[in-house]
Amino acid sequence: MNILPLKGIHHVSAITANAQENLHFYTEILGMRLVKKTVNQDDTSVYHLFYADERGNPGTDLTFFEIPHAGTTYEGTNSISMTSLRVATDQALDFWVERLEQFDVKHEGISEESGRKTLAFRDFEGQRLQFVSDEHNEGVAGGKPWDKSPVPAEKGVIGLGPVRLTVSRPDVTARILVDVMGFREVRSYEEKGITPAIRVFETGEGGTGAEIHLLERNDLQRERPGRGSVHHVAFRVENQDELNKWVEHISASGLPNSGFVERYYFRSLYFREANGILFELATDGPGFEGDEPFETLGENLALPPYLENQREKIEATIKPLDTKKA
């Protein structure tokens, strides 16, 4: 079966316990656009918020499930342990040092990771994040920041960068990435205080928006997720026809999986890699403008057609979230 390579990172979905504070941090401080305010389709009692570039182009979405009673995250192995946010230049990182300090956001200063300038920081719930410079990127192109963002467009977030996986058995994850998902292992790099070296895998055009960084830690307990942890990472598939091929391919590989899942804004397939991390394959389309105009994306509660008959119940269950000015 002839399957097109995965195109890169599609989105990362994480957990928050406070949607209103989450909205403030990612729109008012980080300057991302809320492109969709909807609910978790598997549990409609909680919000699912999508922050991205101006229109939620694939590869730019950082999403959050609000779980109000989510406990503390106990960080450990077999987890998605770092999410990167791409910015256009090295100089943009200087802007972000000043902005993070302005808003009392803890950060680790500018450093270098695998030949790129980075700036690691955490959100108000301890979410592990870093800005990564696209100054020398030659792979997957970034998106376009929203022109109404409080952050100048030339400094803004243009997409998702490398995602780090921390695992106890790296070789089994590597086999799935390479032999099943078609990634290429391209290099490794040292990080202060960490051995062995972190392994880098890329797919599609490669570059900042198409990498998984694999870190071995077998000296830690398994991560206990809560607020500030990552739920899953999704990878880009060209279209629904290609996704159907991936459903067959993943099933033939022997990996238990969800089969085809309709998400309305994209179509998906879910499975867990060998260390238990949840992967999703998601189509580039249809996108977020099928039920809202570009100008007002994210301002109202959007529901896919198959949940529309539950709107009254859903709106009565979730607490109001003011997004008109987000």
Automatic annotation (TrEMBL):
It holds the Pfam family Glyoxalase. Keywords: Dioxygenase, Oxidoreductase. Residues 8-134, 159-284 form the VOC domain. InterPro entries: Extradiol_RC_dioxygenase, Glyas_Bleomycin-R_OHBP_Dase, Glyas_Fos-R_dOase_dom, VOC_core. One of its GO terms (molecular function) is dioxygenase activity. CDD domains: PcpA_C_like. The keyword Magnesium does not apply. The keyword DNA damage does not apply. This is Ring-cleaving dioxygenase. It comes from Alkalicoccobacillus gibsonii.
